[in-house]
Amino acid sequence: MTAGVGRIIETEACVAEGAQWLAEVEPRFAHVLALDGPPPLRRRADGFAALMGAIVSQQVSVAAAAAIWGRLDAAGLTDPVAVAAAPEGALRAAGLSRQKIRYVRALADAGIDYCALRHAPDAEVVATLVAVPGIGRWTAEIYAMFSLGRADVFAPADLALQESARSLFALPDRPREAALRQMAEAWSPWRAVAARMLWAYYRLDRGREGVS
Asked: Residues 138, 163, 8, CA angle at the centre, nearest 5°?
């Protein structure tokens, strides 16, 4: 527990603890836990590169994003100083569109104190990130969950989470962002683990339907 922040998910044991808590308060999560066990940790590095990578990945395939990132990395264009100083042609040569160039330059110029974000309350983290053009609430919440390890952050705009909740809870329709955000309040203080379990269930559910 970090003052003003809440629980930080640092290890697989943290995820298992959260999954067990959720299973005890919600039988449907107990069902997911019995089917698949505790979900994976999925921690990532934080900082500029993590958010720049999220921008690069927007609206392109995983393979395309990896190829673009590889070119940016080879050109030394994955840190804020280099991105801010790079001519547009260099960024375009790596595969970035004009819009994404504007976004990554805005991120480079934002002057975000990434170390300070590690100790900022969840709402402050999200507010700081969404103030940057090209970073929406979903990206900010995913960053808080997986790069900062926040245990009680959820990303209800995620379509897979919405569809998984519809299936697992036998809802008549896929819940929209506001409805799923309200629904997730019952899973506090482990909403990030609930998201992991819903993603795991989505994968299992798609597999039963024969969708890879």
From this structure: 45
